[in-house]
Input
Amino acid sequence: MSLEMMVGIKWVPNTQNVRFDPKTGTLIREGVPSIVNPADLDAVELALKVKDTYGGRVRVITMAPPSAVKGIEHVIGMGVDAGVLVTDRVFAGADTLATSYVLSQAIKKLGLPDLLFFGQETIDSSTAHIPAQVASWLDLPYVYYVDRVEEVNREEGYAVVRRKLEDRYEWVRVELPAVIAAALKSQVPRPVRLSEKLRFHRDKPLQTLTNKDLGLDPRCVGLRGSPTIVAKVTWMPEVPRKRQVFKGDAREAARWLVKKLAEEGILVREDGRWRVRVA
Amino acid sequence: MEGESRMSAETIQKTPAPGEEGGEMPAILRIRLSKKVDCEKQCPEWECLQPSQFDKVWVVGELEEGRVSEPSLQMLTPGLELAKKLYTSLEAVLIGGDREALEKAAREMIYHGAERVHIIHSEALREYMAEVYARVLAAYAHKHRPDVMLFPATMRGRELAPYVANTLRAGITADCIRFDVDEKTGDVDMIRPPFAAIMLAYIKTPTRRPQIGTARPNVFPKPPRDETREGELLWARAEDYGVPRPRSRVLRVERIEKKEIPIEKAEVIVSGGKGVGTHEGFQMLERLAELLGGVVGGSRKAVDMGLVPYERQVGQTGKTVRARLYIAVGISGAAQHTVGIRECGTVVAINKDPEAPIFQHADYGVVADWKEVVTELIRILETGEEV
Output
C-alpha cells in the first residue's frame, strides 16, 4: 500500500479585510472574501513535498459549510489528490473541542492516514488547538512546529521530522501514524495550476460526509458539544496614551522626540552622550 | 475515589472571608458548591463530573534549560487574582525528570506566590515529549481536580495545553489577556481578543472542569519575588499516573545561534512596518536600535515582505512585547499590531500619514517622513548633541 496523507484545512474569512460595525460591535462579514487559512497551505505544501519524494496520496479534510468547496478546489489546484468536506448543520457553532471531535471521527471513518498534517494555527482565532486535540482523540503521537519532513519509512512505521523552536532545531523520530503541525510560514506554498483545477471540475474528487454518515450524538457536536461558550463581546479597552503629536520639520521633530524621552526619564545625557536609562 | 484537593466543608472553614473571620460563607463559594450540571445534556462520551468537585487554581510551570521559565512565573499573576476571587488557593504544577532542577523551580514558584507546588517526577520524564508530558499531566489533573488550570502560551505550552484539555474533555481558551470570575455563576471569564483584535470575547466553561486557559508571554507581569515566602512541595511519582511509552524521540538538536536578545525580553524596540519598505530602511532602524541598546522588530506586513524574521513580529500573530520604549516606524497601527504593544511603557510613532491609527496608540507621535526623522535621531544620538 502506498503512503496515505491527509491535511486538515480551514476555510476562513480573510481577517485583513474584516470590518466592524462600530454601532453594534459586530463583525461585518458581508463582502468579506474567505480564503484557505494561510498556515494550512504550509501544511499542504509539506505533504505535497513528501508526496514528491515518496509518492502516495494526499487528501484534505475540512469541517465547514458547503461554500468551503472553494477552498478544496484551491488546494486540489496545488496538486492535492482529493478532498473531504464534513458538513452538517448540527456541527455549527463548535469550539475547538467539538470541531476536533467531529474531524477525528470523520478521519477514523475514512481510515487513519500515515501522516495527518495541520497548519499551526488559524488567522481567525489562532488558538493552535486542533492538531493536539485531534491527536488526543485519535490517540496518536504529535509533533508541532515542523518545517521539514526528512524521512518517511512506511515499512518500518516511522518518520523523521525537523521542528523549529525559538532557539533550536530538533530532529524527531515519530511512529506512524502521526499528527504533524507545520511551522508557521515555514513553506512557500506552490502555485495553483489551471490544469489541476480542471481536474477538480472533471473528476470531482470530492467526498461529502454529513452526520448521517458519521452518526454522532448531537450532544457531542456543534454548539451543544462545545464546553466553551462566548458569554459576551465588548470593545477592547484602550490603553491610556498621551497622544502628543508633532507635525512639521523632521529635524525639529527628532529634537522634540529626544526632549520628550528625556522628560520621561528614558533618555539621559551624561558626559556628552545620550543613553537609555536602565529601569 | 476521593481526590484530596476537592472542595469540602473543611477547605472552606480554612478559608475565612476577608475581614470576617468565621463569618458567613462567601457568596462565590456558595455558588460554586451549589453549581449543578445536568448530565443528561452532556455528551455521553464524557465522564459527567460536577463543578463542585473541583477546587484550586493551578499554574502549570515549565522548565527551560533546567530553570523555571519567565512565562511560567508570569502566569502566577492571573493565577493569584483568580484564586483570591474564587476563595481558593494558588498551586503550581511541575513535571520532569531532574529532581534538583524541579525542586529549585518549585521554590521559585513559591517565592512568586504559589502556596503549594505539585512536582510530578520520573526518570522517564528527563526528556520533554509533548504527548508523554501531556498525558501524565492530564491523568494527574483528573485525579486531583483543579477548578482552573493556566498554562503559559509558550511554544511548549501551546502544544501541551490543548492535549491536556482534550484528554480531560475540558474546554480551553487560548491567548487570554485577562481573567475574571463571574460572580453570578462562579465561572471564570477567559478574556481574549477574537478575530481582529478590536473586540474582547468573554469565554466561559459553564459545565466542564477544569477551566483551562493560556496567556502569551509578557501579557502579565511577574509577581514580586519574596524569598521568605514558604510553601509546600508535594512530590508525586509519575508512574502512579501512568507514563505512556513515548512514540516519538528527539534524535538530534542543533542550536540556532542568536546574537540579539529576543524581542520579548527587549527594553527598547524599534519596529518597522510597510512604510519602511526596504532592507536598507531596516538597516537604519538597526542602527537606531543599536544606539538605544535595543532590538528591531516589525509588523506582520514587514514580516510578509521578508524584511524582518517571523520571530521578531509584534502583534496578535506574533509576540506581545513589554518594552520600556517602543518606537513604531512606518507602521499604520492595525488593531492586530497594537494589541501586541499594550504592555509597553512609552510608545513613539513616526508616520507620514496623520490619519494613521498608530497615533491613537502612541504617547509621542511625529507626522513626517520617517527616514528624515530617523536620520536625525541617529545623528543626535551619535553626537550626543544637546536638544
About this structure: Chain B has two domains: 9-14+26-241, 263-382. The domain at 9-14+26-241 of chain B is CATH 3.40.50.620 (Rossmann fold). The CA atoms of residues 174 and 214 of chain B lie 5 Å apart.
